Amino acid sequence: MTFSQRITRAIRRHPTFRRFFFSFFFRLLLLDFKKNQLLLVFWLIFFGIITNSVAPRYGVAYLFWGPEYFDKTSYLSYFITGFACGGFVMAYNIASYIKNAFRFPF
């Protein structure tokens, strides 16, 4: 049995895996890996900053780990950081969909 046959059998058996594999987000992500790697570079930079792999000398990762607003770390500072990260996710999804909308008939 080949690898692709095993994957196909696993998709058919497990409904959770099937829902994830056929979800719109996952399909857009696969399409970006195939057609638009430049859009994924921004995600690599973003995760590199959070994991302290990019610009470790400047302490950029600490802005995500303990955000400060008016010299205090509070719920408001985490809300602003979360809102900005959510905006980044939404911008990625919208840009990816605009570039690939003709591939998905609804």
In terms of topology, how is this protein built?
Blueprint: H1 3-13, H2 15-21, H3 24-35, H4 37-50, H5 62-65, H6 75-100
Helix pairs in contact: 1-2, 3-6
Explain what this protein looks like in three dimensions.
The chain is an all-alpha fold and 106 residues long. It is 70% helix and 0% strand. Helix 1 packs across helix 2 and helix 3 (24-35) packs across helix 6. It is elongated, with a radius of gyration of 19 Å. The model has no long low-confidence stretch (mean pLDDT 81).
Overall geometry? elongated
The topology string of helices and strands comes to HHHHHH
Number of domains: 1
- Quote the distance from N terminus to C terminus: 35 Å
SS field, number of helical segments:
6
Features:
elongated, 6 helices, 106 residues, mainly alpha
